[in-house]
Design brief:
Length: 364
């Protein structure tokens, strides 16, 4: 399904904002004073859109679950006195009604909600007939179709001011970041919907504030349109996500250090050089394809030979040796071991699949 989108310049949200677009504010609204002081300092940095969670989806019960609609007047005060736009997360019909009633300028859908088609449909139905901008966070699991499905449900309900937020994906076990970025997913969204507003949420990817700058920079390097950053006037005392919130002062420092890249240039010399480099890549890619095809042909011959001699396809010892050789040679060539493992596992699997169909074919 093609998404019918309205360009972000027409949303009336990011006026006077230069690239990158920045939304910032606390994980949760906790008190009027906390919201107002945070918003005031962010506004002084030129940030015009405040984020604040009112209803907080928490992993375990008996944690702080947000102040709910009691926080709406605090957001309205920020809009009234500071002229900032205000945004919050909605996860069910009740949240949608309360947020719309208060005239919240933008909504976002959390990662646990975009993963749930029933909840998404309920929210889309509740938003029908409005034109409020909605940003959809990636579902917690790395499923690009589910993410797109959430956008489609909203679009089918008539919403055209849609964007996405990349906040990383849950993974079991210990990782450097709280949520693994898996950048290939937002890149796939960009490929399918080149015009869609795409923000990165480095706070929820990082989990710890020291990692936020490198993630924000990577998002800029990949051409994201902007950032949504968690910021709290006093992060140490935050009732949720304390470790990943930045003071407004540190948000300012982060933004000043960001290197912003252009998506194109008119510089002739650059164009000539990049064209030459790309031509070289194209040649290398076709050589890679020729080599892969050749490898598969040899592998087919091995398959036939194994069949004639009634030998199993998988020879664990041989596979182990191939991997060892690949890793040690690849390492010397400066290639990443994890990358090599992925590529060679894929090649090996494809080769096994071809040998299986040879084994199962009627021909002797
Ligand atoms: C949030 O933005 O505070 C939030 C709950 O994020 P996510 O849905 O990405 O976990
Ligand atoms: Mn949070």
């Amino acid at each position: 399904m093609k998404l019918e989108l309205q360009e972000v310049e027409e949303w009336g949200l990011f006026e006077n904002t230069t690239h990158p677009l920045v939304i910032a504010g606390p994980c949760s609204a906790e008190s009027e004073e906390q919201i107002f002081r945070t918003a005031y300092d962010l506004k002084c940095l030129g940030i015009n859109v405040l984020r604040a969670g009112l209803w907080k989806p928490r992993t375990r019960p008996n944690c702080f679950e947000g102040v709910g609609e009691a926080g709406l007047p605090w957001l309205l005060r920020v809009r009234g006195e500071l002229g900032m736009k205000i945004s919050t997360e909605v996860a069910n019909i009740h949240h949608v009604h309360e947020a719309l009633k208060a005239g919240v300028d933008m909504l976002w859908i959390g990662a646990r909600t975009s993963a749930n088609p029933f909840a998404m449909q309920e929210i889309a139905d509740a938003l029908q007939g409005t034109d409020v901008p909605v940003l959809v966070k990636n579902p917690i699991n790395p499923d690009v179709e589910l993410w797109i499905g959430a956008l489609e449900r909203l679009n089918m309900a008539g919403l055209k001011k849609l964007g996405v937020i990349h906040r990383g994906f849950s993974a079991y076990g210990k990782h450097k970041y709280r949520n693994v970025p898996q950048w290939q997913l937002p890149i796939e969204i960009r490929r399918r919907y080149p015009g869609i507003l795409m923000l990165c949420d480095p706070s929820h990817i990082a989990g710890q504030r020291i990692y936020i700058p490198e993630i924000a920079q990577q998002a800029m390097d990949l051409g994201f349109d902007g950032l949504i950053i968690e910021s709290h006037i006093c992060p140490e005392t935050a009732l949720s996500d304390a470790a990943q919130q930045l003071t407004p002062v540190n948000v300012g420092k982060l933004l000043r250090k960001l290197v912003i890249r252009n998506d194109h240039t008119e510089n002739i010399e650059y164009k000539e050089n990049i064209d030459e480099l790309r031509a070289r890549i194209d040649v290398i890619d076709s050589e890679l394809l020729d080599l892969l095809a050749l490898r598969m042909k040899v592998s087919d011959e091995i398959g036939k030979y194994k069949k004639q001699n009634n030998i199993t396809i998988l020879q664990a010892g041989r596979w182990e040796k191939i991997l060892e050789k690949v890793f040690s040679y690849g390492d010397k060539q400066g290639l990443d071991i994890e990358f090599l493992e992925k590529i060679f596992k894929a090649i090996h699997q494809a080769s096994i699949d071809r040998q299986s169909s040879i084994m199962q074919s009627e021909k002797k």
